């Protein structure tokens, strides 16, 4: 039986309308977070669910602190390790993406990501850990919204407060207290470099704090921190 054209168009229009509503929902959140602090993120909620599957009363270590109360050492360390061109690009480091692609092609597997701080924040705030064909496209769309509605300082402030730094540890303040027993404002250069080195694999390094790879990367970050430009 043939479906009338008007019904076919309505069927096709439904997913488009739902997609536009979802994008509007994201847009509204980003607009709000430009001046208000997010209490949680999609990734934090995912990790909390995983922790509570093993221990129902488990919680996250997380405490928001304003940008000015986070050590400049940590800011420089993260820029040096994660996104050296952060203050200059508009959300995407095309040269970095190209280098990551070539490196992955050479190794035959994914060993480098090339994601900027803005892209990482987009993923952490809104997307689950599941890899889907549309995930990168959605990440790119959210990144454009972030860069369009927030300045670099605000993007970096939120990033510093929501990224994962261990098993259930999120944000600079919780990480500083978890690993060193100090506030985020009192982190030394060496402590900051080590925290930055942990970011790609924080749960592993939470359990293996003297791993050779972590120590080697800490040294590299320390050398680069002096030239890192922060917002």
How would you portray this structure in words?
This protein is mostly helical. The chain is 61% helix and 3% strand. It has two domains: 1-33; 34-227, Biosynthetic peptidoglycan transglycosylase-like (Penicillin binding protein transpeptidase fold), CATH 1.10.3810. A three-stranded mixed β-sheet has the order 1-3-2. It is globular. The termini are far apart. The relative contact order is 0.16. The mean pLDDT is 89.
Task: Please render the helix and strand layout as text.
Layout: H1 5-33, H2 42-54, E1 61-62, H3 72-82, H4 94-107, H5 117-126, H6 135-149, H7 152-162, E2 164-166, E3 169-170, H8 172-180, H9 189-198, H10 202-207, H11 212-224
Q: What's this entry about, in short?
A:
The chain has about 230 residues and is mainly alpha-helical. The protein has eleven helices and three strands, in the order ααβαααααββαααα.
Descriptive keywords:
single chain; 231 residues; mainly alpha; Penicillin binding protein transpeptidase fold; 3-stranded mixed sheet; 61% helix; 3% strand; globular
Proper CATH architecture of the largest domain: Orthogonal Bundle
CATH topology tier name of the largest domain: Penicillin binding protein transpeptidase fold
Helical region count? Answer: 11
Q: Give the CATH level 1 class of the largest domain.
A: Mainly Alpha
**Content of β-strand:** under 5%
Q: What structural category do the secondary elements indicate?
A: mainly alpha
Largest sheet, in brief, is: 3 strands, mixed
**Low-pLDDT segments, ≥5 res:** none
Instruction: Tally the beta strands.
Output: 3
């Amino acid at each position: 039986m043939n479906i009338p054209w008007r019904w076919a168009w309505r069927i096709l229009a439904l997913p488009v309308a739902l997609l536009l509503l979802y994008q509007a929902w994201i847009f509204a959140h980003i607009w709000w977070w430009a001046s208000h602090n997010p209490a949680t993120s999609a990734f934090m909620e995912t990790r909390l669910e995983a922790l509570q599957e093993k221990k129902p009363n488990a919680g996250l270590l997380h405490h928001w602190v304003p940008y000015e109360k986070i050590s400049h050492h940590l800011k420089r360390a993260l820029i040096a390790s994660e996104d050296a061109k952060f203050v200059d690009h508009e959300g995407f480091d095309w040269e970095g993406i190209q280098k990551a692609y070539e490196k992955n092609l050479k190794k035959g597997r994914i060993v480098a990501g090339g994601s900027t701080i803005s892209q990482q924040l987009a993923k952490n705030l809104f997307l689950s850990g599941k890899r889907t064909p549309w995930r990168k496209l959605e990440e790119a769309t959210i990144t454009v919204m972030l860069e369009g509605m927030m300045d670099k300082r605000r993007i970096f402030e939120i990033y510093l407060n929501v990224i994962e730094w261990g098993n259930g540890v999120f944000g600079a303040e919780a990480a500083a207290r978890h690993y060193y027993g100090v506030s985020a404002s009192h982190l030394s250069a060496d402590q900051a470099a080590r925290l930055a080195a942990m970011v790609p694999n924080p749960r592993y390094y939470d359990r293996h704090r003297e791993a050779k790879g972590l120590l080697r990367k800490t040294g590299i970050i320390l050398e680069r921190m002096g030239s890192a430009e922060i917002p």
